[in-house]
Design brief:
The complex is a heterodimer of chains A (498) and B (419). Chain A has 498 residues and is an alpha+beta fold. Chain A has 17 helices and 20 strands. Chain A has four domains: 94 residues, Uridine Diphospho-n-acetylenolpyruvylglucosamine Reductase, domain 2; 118 residues, Uridine Diphospho-n-acetylenolpyruvylglucosamine Reductase, domain 3 (2-Layer Sandwich), CATH 3.30.465; 106 residues, Alpha-Beta Plaits (2-Layer Sandwich), CATH 3.30.70.3450; 146 residues, 2-Layer Sandwich (Alpha-Beta Plaits), CATH 3.30.70. About 2% of the residues of chain A have low confidence. Chain B has a five-stranded antiparallel sheet. A four-stranded antiparallel sheet of chain B has the order 12-13-11-14. A four-stranded antiparallel sheet of chain B has the order 16-17-15-18, covered by helices on one side. The chains are: A alpha+beta (498), B alpha+beta (419).
Amino acid sequence: MSSLQMPKVDKAIMSKKDKIALDLRGIINSKNVLSSLDELRPFETDGLTAYRQMPLLVVMPETVEEVSQILKYCNENKIKVVPRGAGTGLSGGSMPLEDCVLIAMGKFNKIIEIDYENRCVVTQPCVTNLAITHAVQDKGFYYAPDPSSQIACSIGGNVAENSGGVHSLKYGATTNNLLGIEVVLMDGTITRFGGKVMDAEGYDFLGLMTGSEGLLGVITEVTVKILKSPEVVKAALVGFPSIEDAGNCVAQIIAEGCIPAGMEIMDKALTKATNDYSKAGYPTDAEAMMIIEFDGTEHEVEAYINKAKEIAEKNNSSSLKISKSNEERLKFWAGRKAAFPACGVLAPDYMCMDGSIPRGKLAEVLNEISRLSKKYNLPVANAFHAGDGNLHPLIMFDANDKESLRKCEEFGADILKYCVKVGGALTGEHGVGIEKRELMCEAFNDKDIQQQLTIKVALDPNSLLNPGKVYPILRKCAEEGRVHVHGGKTKFPDIPRF
Amino acid sequence: MSMEEKQNSQTSLDFNQNIFKPTSREEIVEIVKNCYRRNIPLEINGLKSKNKIGRNFQSEKTLDLSHYKGIIDYKPEELYIKVKAGTPLKEIVEELNKNNQQLAFEPNDFGYLFSGESNSGSIGGVVSCNFAGSRRFKVGSVRDHILGFQGINGKGETIKSGGTVVKNVTGYDLSKLISGSFGTLTILTELAIKVLPKPETSKTLVIKNPHLKKALSYLGKGLSSSTDPSGGVFYPDYFGKNFVLNDLTHEGGLTAIRIEGPTNSVEQRLNRLSKELGLLDQELSILDNEQSNIFWGRTKNLEVFKSLKGNLLRIVVPISETLQVIQKFKNYEIKYFIDWGGSLIWASFDQLNTKILNEIKDIVRKHHGYITLIKVEEDLKASADIFTIDPIKYKISEKIKRSFDPKRIFNPGKMYTGI
């Protein structure tokens, strides 16, 4: 495990642990304040398991007033606070600090209101993403953003990270599907941004809070819009003799005016791993394998899928299958969804990267990754949300070998730097957290970062809320992180990751 | 030589003029740095299509960005366009047309309202005001299409956020914060905007119907159906005659629902929609592609309020509240139409004074909505709050304003007193 510099531990706070616990037990139900090592252990890490740290204390508030009082108390006593939803995040945003009170929001787990007339759901933040869809699907509705961890990740965490998903090209990420939040600021102020109306007046604090990774406030209620489920969903499974052909096909589909619901590419290494692991039946001769999915009404889907077929053929597709039933469509996806675990059997460990690139740069970036793979002598497989340019290279290594881990981290950092160099972004959907913190200066200069920090200080003058995340501590562009998986075992092995 | 004179002598800026028309970012930086140093408030304008919206405020100098224009980079296959902030929206729309693409948020053209003719403004103004058109409920607002920006903060520092890729969660999403901030946080210099393909066909189902209650029921059912509409409006009787179109067979009140996409699918969805709404043939008309575009163009341009003498308010409430809100307006002389599938009320009040305005605000607040004064008479404008805000959000807004513009030199007081 790499060492990671975190904000300086406040020894005075550490020494007052018992007093703080006592005080907090005066604010909330005493059984909801956890202080023994056994109780704290489950909270030592989130989905980024390469980094672990026990918090000073864990509190599990049950009402917004309790959250407010906890924050107010911590603010007055200069105690650091780390908020946590389901703890499935992949960039270490919920990793505790040694001297922090960790606010675990798990008890905020009820859907408050389903409002079909205004087509929205009001919910507490620790309801899972998928539970929202489950609550409304009987009436033919669903919640569109679908991060791969949707069976376990919380909607409040989705807001904090601005989570995306396979379908974000057509339906947008969390920020585009959110109507309102209730939030508690570090000084204990309870306020609401947005509501059941679109574009609430004044500064767009809803937009600012979304994706702020728990640095600006603790979310205590969420209102999301729900959509009518599409009538028909169809997918095409297409093989290409080269990455370039697949990349050109993506560009032309978009240029022709078809916006697929999802468009996924896997490279040969990943296709092979997936076939071996899950008997996915993907074409083994193809250099790139693509799933193109359309949804909508019957004629609409028919028109688009025929157009996509035509474009794929023009771009030398070596195989092409269109799903004839929903079962067949799900089978196309089953392999893709097993792609990450498939890498788990190829090497003791893998790191999942999350860069964003212009769609047209896919071939160039994959060539660079392949060059780096040779340079570092570590195998890599690539999955790509091609529709929206979100690349997930999986670097395989052995964490027991320090040199292998070091090389893997350097390799990962080089990939992200290259993503930025070709006009992309450091993170498409996993967030910066602690993982990409020190790479921020690849994307932003000092003035850009300073402007963001000024906003942070405006709302949290003592920098007590989730410090050490997102913004560089070292102020040098280097090293660290990624999603580390050992022996195929993630922190949440049952959660799909794709 | 004083420090200030020394700094000025290094540049070519003539600071004695009252209106600056910069053509480069460097000039803007210099102007802002000067204003920052000297505590000089600055009014920021693009093409002035919306500069009457907002509070009146005192400014010593004006920054006119209409000469800071041009398309920097347009990549149709990457679905983005990058432009300088003073670029006229019209130029951008024309450029996108060449590739059969569009800005899906179809921003309102306020030129008809304020000056009787089209003035869709500059892209910087469009983003600063964040007023989205009829497709709002389907595709999002202006802010949902801003991929990134470059701007100058109140200290004269160049800052940026976001980029040109659609998926990007690196750092705070400042593109959202600057959208709808009415030029009070940064001077926008460059904007990267998401573009989308134009639909192959756009058609509109128009239902003869003078009753709001019925209209809201049609709109509610339509928007909750799987036919995926991209526009839903209601015009009462008095506006019906504004839409004389070949295929529109009556002149009274109407409810209109737009369906867009591949031609075959549009036909299929239109048929289904009229069946689901239980409509008889004599109750409805279908507008073909061309007429549909004219109809929604007029809606976007607020043409029913062309050269309006009186006041215009923009009221947004949850759809479930619209009927009650309109019913409570019965005591006033008003003309209105409904957009956003039932949630947006554009209302002109014949007589508006502080007392009536407060009553209206009270009604809207009780129904969980908000209100923006788009056009009000000067004497009322001087005394009324154009935007409403509660004390907590005011306090937060004040802090955010200071974090961008510590000396309050950008459009000070345009949104709220003291901000």
